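Before a colleague's protein record goes any further, I have to sign it off. My question to you is simply how this chain folds and whether the tokens agree. I do not need a full report, just your reasoning and any doubts. This is what I was given:
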Amino acid sequence: MSQTVSRARVVLVGPPGAGKTTVGLELARRLGVELLDTDEEVERLEGRTISDIFIEDGEPRFRELEHAAVLRALAEHDGVVALGGGAVEHPDTRAVLLSVPVVYLEVSMAKALPRVGLSGARPLLVESPRARWKALMDARRPLYQEVAGLTVDTDTEPVERLATLVAEALERGDLVPRDAA
């Protein structure tokens, strides 16, 4: 793995429906920076949706594109970065995330599924969404925890409060990269 020097102020990780983009937008506003969503970057660079990439090229190809987008975002973007829910599955992505402040946005299935809906826009949740979401979380929760310096539950707090919690942790110096903790 090549070393990536991160410019990102903070990275948000978590499952679909945790609020990475929503909280990220508010957090970026509060910090006076921009939000970069790596899923949106992959779609922009490929000129097609993630669902289309999954269908036409398969999940392994999407994961390659996603990893490259994460590396570019960390190297080039000096604001808030929101990662796709499965980005932490790539071991090299997890390794590089240890050198940047990461927040794990935690959410229950009861709150997440209504937020994401059950459309084809979330290719990994199309068939049996509840069972699939649980299986994804069973596999990914330890990975989110591995890279995160802060975990925030998004079930009950409003977006503004969540962004404030993260911004305050950054300002106090409580949110540092895992390899610096």
The first strand starts at residue 10 and ends at 13.
